């Protein structure tokens, strides 16, 4: 999957469309206050163990990629929900 180095998209801080720089980042650790994390802690506590079947056998052919979009005007960054891709390339497009 090829992704342009700069994209024009909406900035929620500037409240207009501005140029954003794309950067690949590592997944951030889940906060213990997140609903999903709280639910997971509740499900794994006590008897019963893991709530889902153990992932065995094949490895998934695609991996999740986390991208960060930084506004060039206000320098603030936003991270939209991650996508799946086999291979990721950030390319320069003019
Ligand atoms: Zn901005």
Automatic annotation (TrEMBL):
GO CC, one annotated term: ribosome
Q: Which SUPFAM superfamilies match?
A: Zn-binding ribosomal proteins
Q: Where is the composition biased (Basic and acidic residues)?
A: 53-62
> How the cofactor binds, per note?
Binds 1 zinc ion per subunit.
- One BP annotation, GO: translation
Give the GO molecular function terms: large ribosomal subunit rRNA binding; structural constituent of ribosome; zinc ion binding
Please give the PANTHER family that the UniProt record associates with this protein.
Answer: 60S RIBOSOMAL PROTEIN L36A/L44
Q: What does the UniProt function comment say about this protein?
A: Binds to the 23S rRNA.
Q: Which HAMAP family match?
A: Ribosomal_L44e
Q: Which family does it belong to?
A: Belongs to the eukaryotic ribosomal protein eL42 family.
Q: What is the protein name stated in its UniProt record?
A: Large ribosomal subunit protein eL42
Species of origin: Cuniculiplasma divulgatum
